């Protein structure tokens, strides 16, 4: 089923609206009153536009727009296929929640306007990544949004945050160099940079440059996708960034790396070429080790946000593991896992932020008896943790099931064992948190409440992610939900061509 | 019939979804009576619904239904086995709920408890009505994990510890189950309860069996996965214990039954049953081990609830033995399998009654320890009657239901033992009989200690009978116990036999049993032997004091002589390492330590790598780096001398040209030689002659002083900017630069000349820097005001001498005047601000630093001049064009 290309302003609008919103915010945002409507209005408008886009994609269209042409191969083109639409839907649904959360979390921060504006810019750029139709567009938006994330990570300007930001930017820049090298090699071999379903390089000649290009691109995107051993920035960046941005970091930014890997693997190299190159088992091995090792390391982390950061590394490694299987079922599982994980992990980071805001506690060992003080947060934290562990009928179970089906069909018993061990480790690092929270509160930790008033907005954002998690689990087959889009995308990526 | 079927199809999902929805509605009802009534009504309606489905099932129909959700639909189907489980489950649930409304009267968390019971009912219905493996898994996991809430309900430490153990075992079992289901999907491409295709290899079948065995076995309390059961069942509130033991662990048996008989069996119509016979053997052996372990541990217990929990383990062993023997006997295994399934029903009935009674006793007497109770037959007569009937059932007394199922299982076991490969079951049969006797023994102990014997201490409040609702819950199962004991034909031949024959297991053995063995003399005699054995065991127990409670600290307990032997001591308190629980905990702790060790390793690496790089830098790279400035300096020195010479050469005129040229060549050659020598020595030689190391030392001192001079200029710059903000005039800043540079150069000259320790200290001194910078700014202001005198500069020079402790040569005040091209050239060639060459006269370095401000001003003037020149030229060009054009 080939989608029909539809020239349309929609992808451009979707990427542009948040950027305009950021601009307006920067200009007009000096009045406190206008911050919320501007920020939420632009992200809500973006969400609406993305929904329209998803509807168009479901009907079989592929809206695209060519923006400019610098020289024949260097075009900036945005086009929305099923994969892009899925990623864009996740982004567009997550950012409003993070913005709502940030309005309360950073309410006392004097740089709130800067934070909101930069977040909107990041959203626009990420949507550009989702809709990129060739490698150059992808690179441009990808690098831009990586750089924009730096001020968001070091927002608090503490020495720790600056150190984490430095580590992040060094990793990202080095990764960017690798991506650029890869792109140059791809251009040298293929003469073009567009994403073709079935692979641009499919059938192309010399093995060595293609292999080197693959390695460069994998390393480059792997830095963002937190593939071990390129994961060093993740564990420091997450605790350093403020909670709403940590949620975005874990939810969609790291996923952007996997997204890049997906695009490059299936629409530049193509499944058939990859099979011939024989590199996928290596990627699968690295991803498998990553998943298990990151899970094991998460157990030893006392700081809650660091624990969640290692959990993200582990979960994203599953996505790469499933991608490396080169099978349609596994790919469906990987794509569904990306979107489901985004909401669950964002919710968990919202919880972490709430706990810090209300009680000032950051370490899991201090969480004893928290439920007495923050019952709603504790309940939602339990729900989201169980979703992360993979308890039916929540969304985490659904994505694990699909991953399991795909992995076992394509890869046999070893990836299944990795999945099972990883689930066990996930329970090992999340169950103690759940357990401690519900202990009786005899030894009340002297906790400060730096929050003025009730954190209703934050709780609302958190409840929204929990609701999304439940709905995505129970009603996964509704039209327009990630499952359907993932199936469409997988069919396009693997079904066509190779 | 069609409309009945349609109604049945609609009823199925309602049976699952109804209790779940009701649990959501329950917190909305406020009055306690309304809550009680609502819960009882919902459970009653569920029971009614299951009963209403009976005609359809008995007629051979298979109603199906579906709930939308997840990957499409949750599929439900009702066959005779599901119906049997659903019927007994909802019946026991009804009696337990009636009981619970009274039991939780004082409980602050009663709404949560009742809502959880409703959810668990919905989940159990979902499990037994599931038509495919995914639906089964979802509801199975839901059942397991929501039950955690009732385990930790009381909030005590013991409950919490039991909850942890329960969670991990359930979760681990769930993972194994998931893996097994995925393997089934892989091998057969479908998740329905249908035999795996013929082509599936034996290895895969065993793998699937192993995983499903673990997955369902955890739930069923099979040894060695039973460790959670004796911990979790006692700590839950009594109605929840009744349901846990009565219904929820049966889900495990249900799963194992279906796996063996519907999944792992060969296709219907095949000749041999292949692997499933061996799998049945494995299950039967495990079942026997389970029943033995359960019996032995139950005998040792003092707490009523814990004893009942171990008894559940033991009875599940009976069930699993029956199922296993039935699978071994393949097409002839109906008797054993039906015996196992019937025992499921029976056990649900009498165990729930026993747990409810135990709860009533605990509630009324305040304790559930057998050694503290006694003489309750008079005070709680109805409870006593219930317990008697239920105990008779569980002990296998004829006329009660346990007798039927246990004899069926026993006969099945005997038949299976006669199969080739079943020899081990001969010993198994003896253990079976011993366990049956043991069951009689521990129930005799229970009844004797709690009800019959006089109470040990008479200073206790009088105990009243349990409340009516609780009694109703206890009394409800009794008629069923009696009916099934007297006339099991209904269930056996009406439900189980047709169901089994649908799966190619001939129903004839069941009929055979009912004709030949039921109430036969052989069976009655076996029972009498068991009774004798059990009572003997009980008597011996009393004698040896096994039944005496464990001594608390500092208390002296009188024990009969036999009880004080070493063996009795050991029996009373078996060492931990014999138990599987101990090894599980060790394994868990070891895995946890491994993960923590990995984290510690990662953290150490994270710290060590930068430290290592730093050390590498300091040791190797630093010396390399240090030698480079020396190199660089020499190169620049040489170049600068050239250029200086050239500039002088071209600008000064030709008189001394030749002399200057020769001098320049000499200098160049000296520089080149020096360069080559030092290069060779620095990078190839390892030893440094004392002259070289002195040189290095000098270079280091110079570098430090140079840095100090830089700092001085920067500080002066900063101070000047602070002071000058009112006027925004660069003059002060420039002047401060120049003066600070001059002072710095003075310091440098003098310090290099003196070369002592003091010089080194001054090179690092921050205070000196600040002081000199302040003075530089001060002097600059005076210079701008035109009031600077030579004496001021001398004063500074004096002060420096003082600081250094030397009398260095006095420099003339002021700064040298150089032509501006030379200055600009020198400035342009400066690699950076700091490292300037040192020559004997130090003039080259001095003039650049000192005149920096002037040079920059000159450059600005120059550039503005050039700009003016350019504009003028442009105007001229335009004018010319204009003129030409015109």
Detailed description of the structure:
The complex is a heterodimer of chains A (498) and B (886). Chain A has 498 residues and is mostly helical. Chain A has one domain (4-495). Chain A is 74% helix and 4% strand. Chain A has a 3-stranded mixed beta sheet. In chain A, strand 2 and strand 3 form a beta hairpin. In chain A, helix 2 runs parallel beside helix 4 (112-131), helix 11 (280-299) runs antiparallel to helix 12 and helix 16 (395-411) packs antiparallel against helix 17 (413-437). The longest helix of chain A is centred in the middle third of the chain and has 32 residues, at 159-190. The two termini of chain A are 14 Å apart. Chain B has helices spanning 2-25, 32-58, 80-103, 110-129, 133-151, 157-188, 202-220, 229-235, 238-263, 275-300, 304-328, 334-365, 376-379, 381-395, 401-417, 424-452, 468-475, 477-486, 489-502, 508-517, 521-544, 566-572, 580-652, 657-684, 690-724, 730-754, 757-764, 766-784, 790-804, 820-829, 843-850, 852-885; strands at 64-69, 72-77. Chain B has 2 domains: 2-551 and 558-574, no CATH class; 690-886, no CATH class. Chain B has a two-stranded antiparallel sheet with strand order 1-2. Helices cover 76% and strands 1% of the residues of chain B. In chain B, helix 3 packs antiparallel against helix 17. Chain B is elongated and about 140 Å long. By secondary structure, chain B is mostly helical. Chain B contains 32 helices and 2 strands.
Report the span from N to C terminus of chain A.
14 Å
Distance between the termini of chain B: 113 Å
Number of strands of chain B: 2
Strand content of chain A: under 5%
State the strand order across the main sheet of chain B.
1-2
Radius of gyration of chain B: 49 Å
How would you sum up the major sheet of chain A? Answer: 3 strands, mixed
What order do the strands of the largest sheet of chain A run in, or round the barrel if closed? Answer: 1-2-3
Can you summarize the main beta sheet of chain B?
Answer: 2 strands, antiparallel
Radius of gyration of chain A: 21 Å
- How many domains would you count in the coordinates of chain B? 2
